[in-house]
Design goal:
The chain is built from 20 helices and 27 strands. The relative contact order is 0.09. The structure holds 5-hydroxymethyl-3,4-dihydroxypiperidine (IFM).
Length: 744
């Protein structure tokens, strides 16, 4: 019974939803992700396997992108000469006399507890014979280089003649963009298929080796670009045959000879066999879920969806590699070209910090290894220190495209985020600091974290503008989280985050001086943290301009915001698109419509630490902020609802918190944004975990360093149980709902 809360099912295949489900049903293991396309393919399907770190910049493309690797799923089945195709019918006449083969029964589900995708198909061949085919696949969590597939074919009616063809498909593109050099190495030897491809510009090599385990003799089908093998057999009525395909994958990021390594690894995996590989994989998932699972007593819909979003965080996040990071669309689609945004540090890393601290550290190390790119960006823009790119890949360089794709009228729109969405440096510093506070990982702070926090502080020190008329520091030409309003002056989010950043950098330096003076001296010398510089930071912390309306007791998103046209966003319901799309780009930027949590985002991240003028009650200001900004917010970005759920819960607004959580946790399942075909929303997935733990359960570190909860749960939730790591120890919590009311 409880098993179904670990499953997402598709009970009817509808081709107009195929791309959505391909994304939802992705499997992965932190090394790669493979979309849930069918083994045999389907008209206009979008198969993709994306491997962390394998980027390439195609000629003529504006920016590099994560490259679609060869398709290892490739398995084609023929029943009495009729190829299996997912053509379904509900039409009775069709059913009786199918024009060719027809699928008469279908069920697909992702088992999140075990990380296994299954599909059951009842297929009637043109001959009239009926077979049941069960497909199963997983990307081993135990050995990240091993992929496994199993198919069981059963003759339900008749004596069908079956052909199963297995291949590695190297002729793959990113939506038509070719990244692989022509003439891959392919081999078909003794039942083993091998393929090796190389990217055109970056020179990354990806190799795969594959083996088909069946009771029947294989016949090789040499084919350039698609090494293949097939088996032929006939089934008796009710007889079943099980066929397993194992594939190993290595890249030049892993080893000097990826092909030889993949072949050797394949021998080892084959020796262990499918069942052992599967049980090791399931055991690894069980260990992961022991900490990652949040158990909600009283809400099955949210429970299941929360497991789904957590599953996607776990399969997307690198486990062992600290030179790669999670892209905004995970490894489940080509959206945003696999680029890494602030989504990682603000939405994904804090979740991992509590459930998989080592993986959170890996993500922060990615930023550390890319400090050189941040330093180059600062220099190129005339600043000091390190200024992280808004979008980044494997090189650490800024990879935000400057122009959009061509619009229907032939024009391109200038994209300013790479120039002016500068808060990412504070976001990285914020999470570095948070990671240190929660994990107690002093080693990380001393060797890496402090350098990131301090050199990005050097950047802000050189970036701020002093306004002598007002004796305050300002930041012009910024883009805050609300990207509808570009290149504005004094975004309250940006200014406050930069101020908090400088304050925490000073605190960390003071801590270092006390606890590791050698490390402190090294950084002081390397980053030139002289007295003048540090005094300036203190001055900025004291005098940063935080726009605030004293009369209304609210933060001002940016000066001038309230002079624009007011649009009551809640009146635009029900709607299937953003208010921005309804009003049009040109008009909406002149209005008070906010793309996503901005002031609300600041409240989620900083809680009561909002830099409020003396005499004002922080809680009242937060409520006023909420009442002002919530009705103006479009949630045009998937990042928004989870942050609203978090803040609403802290403010005791339980209905709003629930609405926003429900919205956030279903963004991908329900395809609320209509773009899940391009990949999962990593930020929404990480955000809902935090919304439940920090927002609804109110987990925080008290002044004396204890972990405490302060639940604000919807009335129908009886309790929430979860585990988190805190300073190296696993801690279990069960949070009872003080206002629980049984509504059954
Ligand atoms: O980082 C986000 C941004 O905040 C809103 N637009 C999409 C980006 C990637 O998810």
């Amino acid at each position: 019974m409880q098993e179904r809360l670990w499953q997402i099912d598709e009970l009817n295949f509808e081709s107009n939803h195929q791309h959505h489900y391909e994304t939802l049903f992705s499997i992965g293991n932190g090394y790669l992700g493979t979309r849930g396309t069918f083994e045999e393919g389907y008209f206009l399907d979008a198969p993709a396997t994306l491997i962390h770190g394998i980027y390439d910049h195609a000629p003529g493309a504006l920016v590099p992108e994560l490259v679609n690797a060869p398709n290892w799923l490739d398995l084609k089945i023929t029943v009495d000469s009729t190829p299996l195709q997912m053509i379904m019918t509900v039409d009775r006449s069709d059913f009786m006399t199918p024009p060719s083969g027809v699928v008469i029964g279908y069920e697909r589900s992702i088992d999140m507890k075990r990380g296994v995708l299954r599909r059951d198909v009842l297929f009637r061949a043109q001959s009239g014979n009926i077979v049941r085919i069960t497909f199963e696949r997983f990307a081993s969590l135990h050995d990240q280089h091993v992929m496994a597939q199993r198919i069981v074919i059963t003759a339900v009616d008749g004596h069908p003649a079956i052909i199963v063809e297995s291949a590695l498909q190297t002729d793959v593109t990113n939506n038509g963009v070719r990244h692989w050099l022509p003439d891959p190495i392919t081999k078909t030897e003794g039942g083993r298929l091998s393929a090796q491809v190389t990217t055109q510009q970056s020179g990354y090599v990806v190799a795969m080796a594959s083996y088909l385990n069946s009771p029947h003799t294989e016949i090789a089908l040499p084919h350039p670009g698609r090494p293949a093998t097939h088996i032929v057999f006939t089934l008796k009525q009710e007889e079943s045959v099980t066929i397993e395909k194992l594939t190993t994958i290595y890249t030049s990021r892993d080893t000097a000879d990826p092909l030889a390594t993949a072949e050797t690894a394949l021998d080892a995996a084959s020796a262990r066999g499918y069942d052992t590989l599967l049980s090791d994989h399931i055991a690894e998932w069980a260990t992961d879920w022991e900490t990652a699972d949040i158990r909600i007593d009283g809400d099955e819909a949210i429970q299941r969806a929360l497991r789904f979003t957590t599953y996607h965080v776990l399969i997307a996040s690198p486990r062992t590699d600290e030179h790669v990071s999670v892209g905004a669309k995970t490894l489940s689609g080509l959206g945003y070209k696999g680029h890494v945004f602030w989504d990682t540090e603000i939405f994904v890393t804090p979740t991992l910090m509590l459930i998989q601290p080592k993986m959170a550290r890996n993500l922060l190390m990615y930023r550390y290894h890319n400090l050189h790119g941040a330093r180059e960006k600062a220099k190129a823009n005339g600043y000091e220190g390190a200024m992280y790119p808004w979008e980044s890949t494997d090189t650490g360089e800024e990879t935000t495209p400057q122009w959009s794709d061509v619009q229907p009228d032939g024009s391109r729109i200038r994209i300013w985020t790479g120039d002016n969405e500068q808060h990412i440096s504070s976001d990285i510093a914020y999470t570095t600091h948070k990671y240190w506070r929660w994990t107690g990982d002093d080693d990380f702070l001393i060797k890496y974290g402090a350098e990131m926090m301090l050199d990005t502080a050097v950047f802000w020190g050189s970036r701020v503008e002093y306004n002598a008329d007002h004796d305050r520091y300002e930041l012009s030409q910024q883009i805050g989280p609300d990207e509808y309003h570009e290149n504005i002056d004094n975004s309250v989010f940006v200014n406050r985050m930069a101020q908090a950043h400088l304050k925490s950098a000073l605190d960390v330096l003071a801590w270092l001086k006390t606890n590791d003076s050698v490390a402190a001296d090294r950084l002081i010398a390397a980053l030139d943290l002289n007295t003048t510089r540090l005094d300036k930071w203190r001055d900025i912390v004291a005098k940063m301009f935080i726009p605030f309306d004293h009369e209304k007791a609210i933060h001002i998103q940016f000066p001038g915001f309230f002079d624009m046209e007011y649009i009551p966003v809640p009146h635009y319901q029900p709607r299937t698109t953003s208010v921005q799309a309804i009003l049009g780009h040109a008009r909406s930027i002149q209005t008070q419509v906010i793309k996503q949590a901005d002031v609300v985002m600041m409240m989620a991240l900083l809680g009561h630490e909002l830099s409020i003028p003396e005499g004002f009650d922080p809680l009242q200001v937060m409520l006023n902020n909420w009442n002002t900004y919530y009705p103006r917010t479009d949630h045009g970005s998937s990042l928004s609802p989870a942050m609203h759920a978090w803040v609403a819960a802290r403010l005791g607004l339980l209905d709003e918190a629930y609405d926003m959580l429900d919205h956030a946790v279903h963004i991908d399942l329900q395809d609320n944004k209509g773009n899940v075909r391009d990949g999962m929303h990593a930020a929404a997935c990480g955000g809902v975990w935090q919304a439940v733990i920090f927002g609804l359960c109110g987990l925080r570190i008290s002044r004396d360093g204890a972990l405490i909860t302060d639940p604000r749960l919807p009335a129908h939730w009886r309790r929430v149980s979860f585990n988190v790591y805190y300073r190296g120890e696993k801690r279990a919590f069960t949070v009872e709902n003080p206002v629980y009311s049984d509504q059954s």
